[in-house]
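Continuing from the previous page...

OK, I double-checked the sequence for GTPase HflX against my notes and this is the correct one:
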Amino acid sequence: MFDRYEAGETAVLVHIDFSDEERREDLVELQLLVESAGARSVGVITGSRRSPDRKFFIGSGKAEELAALVAATEANVVIFNHALSPAQERNLEQVCQCRVLDRTSLILDIFAQRARTHEGKLQVELAQLRHMSTRLVRGWTHLERQKGGIGLRGPGETQLETDRRLLRGRIKNINKRLERVDKQREQSRRARKRSDMPTVSLVGYTNAGKSTLFNALTSSDVYAADQLFATLDPTLRKLDLPDGAVILADTVGFIRHLPHDLVAAFKATLQETRQAELLLHIVDCADENMADNFEQVQSVLKEIDADEVMQLIVCNKIDLLEDVTPRIEYDDRGKPVRVWVSAHKRLGFDLLLKAITELIGEVIHEFTLRIPATAGHYLGQFYRLDAIQQKEYDDLGNCILSVRLSDADWRRLAKQSQGELETFIFDPSIEKAVC
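Thanks. Re-ran it with the corrected sequence; updated structure tokens here:
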């Protein structure tokens, strides 16, 4: 049903340089994606354009050049380093006489290969179904009209309409199953909060070394390889610190222009990142595109509403650089902001644990709120976060609430309330002294 690769498949790659920065992609990254998918590149078509061609994306001349290269190399798939419309895919397939996939379809295929858990497979299938729903017409042009005659009269809908109805039903079914998974994850998160064990989540650009660092810190055996999207399903392990312990979460890597279908489908998985007390943003400091990759990760974090969570930048792979040693960098307030380590050589781990310990002490808030009856809707939000330690009411009907929650959750609530919650904070001991 889906466009999935098989071993030994050969591909022609297409990469266009656009003057618009928003449309610009990296050819080396495309080649790594193709390699991760298990295909072999037998040719590359490159060019420059101001904007995509409406019919072929690359123009009629380049389309003919592409078709000639496909015929000469006997390639069985063409992969574009860009997002194509359904009409452009169909037009290119007619010219090239082989399958044409865009960047989104390629990433979806890699995810389909990497998914191991039941939840991961459901999420990938949901993303593929959403992506496919706009491309059904490509394979059913011979069934676009209803047929007449004895034995050929159907239910009054075309094959295309039938497929769309089946897709909608399957998407609805998967969404219900993922909702149950999300509830189970939420229960686990609440249990961890009750045990006073903070969650630290690893984030970063794909192939930055997150899983290697995760394995080295927790003595785990999570699959780690020098390829894009080696990790798909989230893994949680306990990490002992000098002054306690935290839950360390390894998550899927990000990439520029991450398909929106994937972001939506992996909402439950990305909750581990969104609700963590601290994010370790792993950066490949030996990558020449380090700055751009950093910004791409920040963009995805904002998209999933995780940009409010406190971050510690971990510059990984210092063993590939000259004259760089493990160290901690602090800001003007003496707060750790960056740690230089090597996960492969296990360098700087003591400094990383020290920085995590210092930051974890700052990410838990405990205070008392006096919430008037007119603002009682805030109680439900604190209950959902399992943040209420004690609740009572004063003589005026105000709710006196003792809460304990992470810095990220508090900042998110304060932002949603437009600062109103902050006006409810008070110190009971001071008021008693005044009385």
